[in-house]
Design goal:
Elements lengths: L1 H36 L11 H13 L3 H9 L4 H30 L8 H6 L1 H6 L11 H31 L2 H24 L1 H14 L7 H23 L8
């Protein structure tokens, strides 16, 4: 019961920023649609759900400290805290996925706006992109695959944001700087390795193509991979949160 009550509290606390976000998103999309209507050219937009990914990443970054302090002040265990986080993010991500698909379909009435799913897993879009004759599918299969793909993507970016804020919470100032610089170092080392070994680069590319189903246009393969990634990220979060202490500053 504690898990559900705390999850309900987390969901309610997220209502206001979600409403504000969608108000801004719909306003921007409406302006784009109006501009396209009076434009001499047929403009295109794509991947508006990327903004939702960024939003949920930011939500993840800001989801820990206040909620964690609240749970510790009310003698709620760290395990219950983590369970409530998972219970809260799942319906949030699902509802946002459905809303984003609905908004995308409405937006497509005024201008071409493929989703990230369309650009990645719709063979028709890939084949017709240069001909500009692509028509977005509204079949039940396409809609369900789009929603599940977005849902899996959303929970992963949220978990990544939560993990990053947990790492920063546990580190001192020097370690925070090192953590911030680590992606640059990893990218630089990866570039050197790829440049020195084309075979290794091809193997890495093939690996990611396979686990995300890009070769076969199988989005469900990507969904399974993303869910596994979400579980891994949340496992790391649990390892960090079980030893976290309340910081007053």
């Amino acid at each position: 019961m504690k898990n559900l009550k705390l999850a309900k509290y987390n969901i309610k606390s997220s209502f206001k920023p979600i409403i504000i976000y969608y108000c801004i998103l719909i306003t921007v999309i409406t302006c784009l649609a109006i501009l396209n209507k009076f434009s001499a050219e047929n403009n295109e937009s794509s991947g508006i759900e990327f903004s939702s990914m960024i939003f949920l990443f930011v939500i993840g970054l800001n989801f820990f400290k206040e909620n964690f302090h609240f749970t510790q002040a009310n003698n709620i265990s760290r395990a219950d805290y983590l369970k409530s986080v998972v219970i809260a993010i799942l319906p949030i991500a699902l509802v946002m996925s459905i809303l984003d698909v609905i908004i995308n379909r409405v937006f497509n009435l005024s201008m071409v706006c493929p989703t990230f799913y369309d650009m990645t897993y719709a063979p028709g879009f890939i084949n017709d992109i240069n001909k500009r004759v692509w028509i977005q599918s509204n079949s039940i299969g396409t809609l369900s695959r789009t929603v599940t793909f977005l849902f899996a993507s959303y929970i992963v970016v949220f978990a990544l944001g939560l993990l990053i804020t947990m790492i920063y919470y546990k580190c001192n100032k020097i370690m925070r700087i090192l953590v911030s610089l680590s992606p640059i170092v990893i990218i630089a080392i990866g570039g050197i390795i790829f440049e020195g070994s084309s075979k290794f680069e091809n193997n890495v590319v093939d690996f990611f193509m396979n686990i995300f189903g890009l070769n076969t246009f199988n989005s469900y393969m990507a969904v399974m991979t993303l869910i596994c990634l979400f579980i891994i990220l949340m496992t790391f979060v649990y390892m960090l949160v079980r030893k976290a202490v309340v910081k007053r500053t």
